[in-house]
Every structure is written in structure tokens, then in C-alpha cells.
Design a protein that fits this description.
RNA Polymerase Alpha Subunit, Chain A, domain 2; five-stranded mixed sheet; 4 helices; elongated
Length: about 300
């Protein structure tokens, strides 16, 4: 049988006792204080088919109590409020905040949490395809304009709260610079959605091709005769003035080969009887576009045949 000597290593045992007593006196004599902290709010276990909407608080105010030296060592991040949302379902919900939902260091107690409950609005999740709309920045070189813009992929799948998904009409790209460009610009850029409650499910970038084409030109044809269309056979008519200027717009190639006689100015007299009228002048110009006619109207006098 082993004999136990109670006085063996007596010096070490006495030293341990003295240290323990000193620690007890230090702790028991330390002042207990309270301190207010603004701490982060962590949301955990949110179901995959539920989305948060509106303003969601990111912090709460917590009042803690403990020894002055203990609280003086509490740093940012040592105290965190945790809200378990595993039972959340769509609708307006209120979640109570209690002391056991706050993580604190040893020796620190939670006295109060403000607010005592967190109100949230939750919606069911949804997703759908929306088109990708390219964006450009800057201006091409003088004499050139931006033509067709194509994004690849042409559409992406977005996800988020059901109401926000229904409102969404497009995803946008980071602007592609076309500053001083004279030929096609092709660039890989980031895709995003403007509504912060929405997100992209998969694709994060797109290849955008921007055509840079010669700018349309304008050409004015002077003194084009005004034709009188659809005049009944038993009537005569005359216009004042009898000629107008027609301004055309199109590519350099089209306007260079355009013959003046191809632009036909006219007024339509269908259904009109004898009398005096102020009528709008129209023009046909085949491939070119008509941007302006001067004057825009003429006075037409219609009379019966004598």
C-alpha cells in the first residue's frame, strides 16, 4: 500500500494557495461595471426558398456587465448577436432577441438588448431569364456612330424575392468604351442587375460586340416641285409655293448615288373639293430618309373645271 505524505512538496502547495488567494482577492475586489456596445447581427440558417426584403438591420445595441478589467479587454467582434432564421416563412415576421442569442467572452453577462425584437419582411424566392442590355461609354471618332450592339450571352437568369424578379426587365453590362473608335469594339465585361435585392444565378460576364459605322450624312435638294396627288378629274389645283427644299439623311454611299429626281415632294388631295387649303408636304426618297421639308406646308387652291 502506497503511503501518502501530506507534507510532501509543502513549499509548492503553500505557493499555490497564496496565488489562489491573491487571485480571489483581486477578482472579488474588482469593480463590476456595465457598458453599452453596438454589435453585429448575424442571420443564420435562412431557408433556401425564402428571401429577405426591405431594410434588414445589421447591428443591435447590447448592454453588458462584468469586471472592469474584463470589459476593458473586450474588442470589436468579441460580442456578436446571432438570429436563427431556420423557421422563417414568407410574410411579415417578428423575431425576439434574448440574452442567449448573444455570444460574449467568459465573465461577461448580457443585461439588455435593443431592440428586443427584429421585424423583417420575407418573400418566397423566384428566378427567370432576362435580356442582357449592353452599355457603351464615350463617342466614336468624328464621322462615326455606334451601330448594332450584341451581348453573348444574350440573356441571363436572375434570382431574388418574387416581387423584385417580376419587376426586373433586364440585366446590364459594364460600359464598353468606344471613345475614338473607327471599327468594331469587342470586350469581355461584367454583367449586373440594378436592383440590389436581385442576383445572377450563374453567368457573371458577357462578351459585348459594338459595331462602329460611318455616321449618316445629310443632303438638301433645292426647289423640288410639289406634285398634286389624287386630284379628281373634274377639278384643277395649284400650289403656292410650287417647289420646296427636301433634306435627306443616309449613308455616304446612298446619298452620293442619289439623283435629285428620285426625291418626289407631294401633297395629297384625296377627298378634297373646291376651296383653299393649307396642306402638309410629304416626300418619297426610296433608300434615303427624309428629315426635313422647307416649307413644311403649302397653300393649295382647288377649283372646278370651266
Amino acid at each position: 500500500m502506497k503511503v501518502i505524505w501530506p507534507f510532501r512538496h509543502l513549499g509548492l502547495k503553500l505557493l499555490s494557495l497564496v496565488i489562489a488567494l491573491l487571485l480571489w482577492f483581486a477578482v472579488s475586489g474588482e469593480e463590476t461595471v456595465e457598458r453599452g456596445l453596438r454589435v453585429p447581427l448575424e442571420l443564420q440558417q435562412l431557408p433556401a426558398d425564402v428571401e429577405l426584403t426591405g431594410d434588414v438591420p445589421t447591428t443591435v445595441d447590447v448592454r453588458v456587465r462584468g469586471g472592469s478589467s474584463t470589459l476593458s479587454r473586450v474588442a470589436a467582434g468579441d460580442v456578436v448577436a446571432v438570429l436563427d432564421l431556420r423557421s422563417a416563412r414568407p410574410g411579415r415576421r417578428v423575431f425576439p432577441m434574448t440574452a442567449d442569442q448573444v455570444r460574449v467572452p467568459f465573465g461577461v453577462d448580457v443585461v439588455q438588448i435593443t431592440p428586443s425584437a427584429i421585424a423583417m419582411v420575407l418573400e418566397g424566392s423566384a428566378s427567370r431569364e432576362v435580356p442582357v442590355v449592353p452599355a457603351v461609354d464615350g463617342r466614336p471618332a468624328p464621322g462615326f456612330v455606334v451601330g448594332q450592339m450584341v451581348a453573348e450571352p444574350a440573356s441571363v437568369e436572375i434570382a431574388g424575392p418574387e416581387s423584385a424578379v417580376k419587376r426586373a426587365t433586364e440585366a446590364v453590362t459594364e460600359p464598353v468604351s468606344v471613345a475614338n473608335a473607327r471599327e468594331r469594339v469587342r470586350e469581355t465585361v461584367t454583367i449586373g442587375v440594378l436592383d440590389p435585392s436581385l442576383r445572377l444565378k450563374n453567368t457573371r460576364s458577357a462578351v459585348v460586340s459594338v459595331q462602329i459605322v460611318p455616321a449618316p450624312m445629310e443632303r438638301t435638294l433645292r426647289n423640288r416641285p410639289v406634285h398634286l396627288r389624287n386630284l379628281p378629274p373634274n377639278l384643277t389645283a395649284e400650289a403656292a409655293p410650287t417647289a420646296v427644299d427636301v433634306t435627306l439623311r443616309g449613308s455616304r454611299e446612298i446619298l452620293n448615288r442619289f439623283e435629285p429626281d428620285e426625291a418626289v415632294a407631294y401633297v395629297d388631295l384625296a377627298g378634297l373639293g373646291a376651296g383653299q387649303y393649307q396642306l402638309t408636304v410629304h416626300a418619297d426618297a426610296h433608300e434615303a430618309g427624309v428629315t426635313h421639308i422647307e416649307p413644311t406646308t403649302v397653300q393649295v387652291r382647288i377649283a372646278g373645271v370651266k
